[in-house]
Write a structure and sequence with these properties.
alpha/beta, 6 helices, binds 4'-phosphopantetheine, 5-stranded parallel sheet, 168 residues, globular, 5 strands
Length: 168
């Protein structure tokens, strides 16, 4: 079985992340979405919300892949998360050339730490190339409409106009 880890903060998951996850599920038998957190910084309830949002998004947007996708929380190195779940690949999305430098550095560093693990990149679909979790949060904070940028459950949690909610 070919397993991959898709690591990230997912704070919150966006439609860009969902797109990368869909494509990864088309290539790997099993994709573990690894929500990487620093337990000293992220309150447990908030992390639970991120995990719930990812699970909801998978059920809603990728119903055929629910058996392939797991969502788990890790605090520590991504390569250790890979070793824990038995994955030999790390999945990351590239939105634009501006992502490349940081991603290249991480991929090389991870390979240095764990030569048996390779990073594979999916180019995020063009329509989501401008999305980022931090921008989504900022827009929502000021009352902007993020309902076309995030899964419906996240939009509701963020209190997007037109979405059901806010839930929190
Ligand atoms: O969603 P993000 O914030 O772009 O994800 C970054 C993330 C979580 C993948 C990266 O910070 C990470 O791998 N953190 C875990 C700690 C680690 O392994 N650091 C070394 C990376 S070379």
């Amino acid at each position: 079985m070919r397993s991959a880890v898709y690591p990230g903060s997912f704070d919150p998951i966006t439609l860009g992340h969902v797109d990368v996850l869909r494509r990864a599920a088309g290539v790997f038998d099993r994709v573990v979405v690894a929500v990487l957190v620093n337990p000293r910084k992220a309150p447990a309830g908030e992390v639970d919300g991120r995990v719930a949002a990812i699970r909801e998004a998978v059920a809603e947007a990728l119903p055929d892949a629910t058996g392939q996708v797991e969502v788990r929380v890790f605090d520590g190195l991504t390569v250790e998360a890979c070793r824990t779940v038995g994955a030999r690949h790390i999945v990351r999305g590239l939105r634009a050339v501006s992502d490349f430098e940081a991603e290249l550095q991480m991929a090389h560093m991870n390979r240095r730490l764990a030569p048996e693990i390779d990073t594979v990149f999916f180019m995020t679909a063009l329509e989501y190339g401008y999305l980022s979790s931090s921008l989504v949060k900022e827009i929502a904070r000021f009352g902007g409409d993020v309902s076309a940028m995030v899964p419906a459950g996240v939009a509701a949690r963020l209190g997007a106009p037109g979405a059901e909610g806010p839930r929190v």
